Amino acid sequence: MATASQRSYSAVPEGKSLISFEEAMNELSRDERFKATVYAMNTLLVEKGIYSPEEFEFHFRQWAQKLKK
Q1: HSE of 14 in the Cβ direction (CA atoms, 13 Å)?
Q2: Closest by alpha carbon to 60, among 42, 33, 40?
Q3: Using CA atoms, how far apart are residues 41 and 51, in angstroms rounded to an integer?
Q4: What is the C-alpha separation between 12 and 18, in angstroms, rounded?
Q5: Could you give the angle at which helices 30-47 and 53-68 cross, rounded to 10 degrees?
Q6: Which 3 state secondary structure label does DSSP give 2?
Q7: How confident is the model at residue 7 (pLDDT cuts 50, 70, 90)?
Q8: This model's pTM is above 0.70
Q9: pLDDT class of 11 with cuts at 50, 70, 90
Q10: Are the CB atoms for 3 and 11 separated by under 8 Å?
Q11: What is the distance between the alpha carbons of residues 20 and 69, in angstroms, rounded to a whole number?
C-alpha cells in the first residue's frame, strides 16, 4: 500500500523529472510562487487526512462570502 508521501512523488510520469526547487523559485513570479505554495500545502493536508476536499471547499466558500459583505 502506498503512503501519502509515496503517492505525491508517483504523480511524476515515468522517465520524467521535476525541476529543482531553486529553478522553480527562479522561474516563477511572486504570484505564481504563492499559488504553488497554496497548492502544495493543500495537497499535503488533504493527502495526510488533515481535512477533506469538501471541507476545504466549504471554508473557501465561507471566506469568499465574508469578503462580499
Answers
A1: 0
A2: 42
A3: 11
A4: 7
A5: 140
A6: coil
A7: low
A8: no
A9: confident
A10: no
A11: 42
Query: Cell 462570502 maps to which residue?
Result: 65
| Residue 21 to residue 6: CA distance in whole angstroms | 18
* Mean pLDDT of the 4-28 span: 81
Residue 27 grid coordinates: 522561474
- The pair phi, psi for residue 40, each rounded to 5°, is -65, -45
The helix (H) or strand (E) run that includes residue 42 is helix 30-47
DSSP 8-state secondary structure symbol assigned to residue 65? H
* Cβ atoms of residues 43 and 5 within 8 Å: no
Q: Please give the biggest Cα pair distance in the chain.
A: 50
Nearest CA to 40 out of 59, 61, 58, 25 is that of 25
